[in-house]
Amino acid sequence: MAKVLLGFMGAGKSTIARGLDPDYLDMDALIEKRLGMSIAEFFAEKGEEAFRQIESEVLADLLQRDQVVSTGGGVVISQRNRDLLKTNSDNIYLKADFESLYHRIAADKENQRPLFLNNSKEELAAIFQERQAWYEEVASRVLDVTELSPEEIIEELR
Ligand code: S3P
After folding, report:
1. In what order do the strands lie in the sheet with 89-95?
2. For 101, which of 6, 24, 71, 118 is 20 to 30 Å away at the CA?
3. Cα(158) to centroid(ligand 1), Å
4. CA distances (Å), 22 to each of 42, 67, 123, 135, in order?
5. What's the gap in Å between 156 CA and the centre of ligand 1?
6. Whole-model pTM over 0.90
7. Is the CB–ligand 1 distance for residue 9 below 6 Å?
8. Rounded mean pLDDT of 79-91?
């Protein structure tokens, strides 16, 4: 069964997945490979809805594998994705408070996320709030990572 890391942008999903298994599967990286462009470029060209469609297809593929998977923060938006996750994988929600996440997202110059670029801080906080129940709905485990280092999180999840 796949072990899936869930959480808002900036929660450290890819870093933790890599620490748990160097051969982990990174959903966003696989989506970008399939798109032939960055997620930010795709959002700008085709919009969020088109992105969500491809995200769902890639998720369904990845859940067939028996590996560690890091997801994009919006994977839980769709009911279909939540149902897929609930029935096919062991899901860990890396939970953190919004202020910590916002600082990390804003400081990450290498990964300019479209939802960060296109929304005010207040709008992003509303998106964060809206998603909480969805992460919790699918998670078999919730880990509050706000005060933990990546090493501590990896140790906790091993
Ligand atoms: C998104 C999160 C991003 C990426 C896309 C949309 C979201 O992934 O999938 O920009 O809706 O929260 P990360 O959570 O890895 O930043």
Report:
1. 25-26, 68-70, 2-6, 89-95, 141-144
2. 24
3. 25
4. 27, 10, 35, 24
5. 24
6. yes
7. yes
8. 96
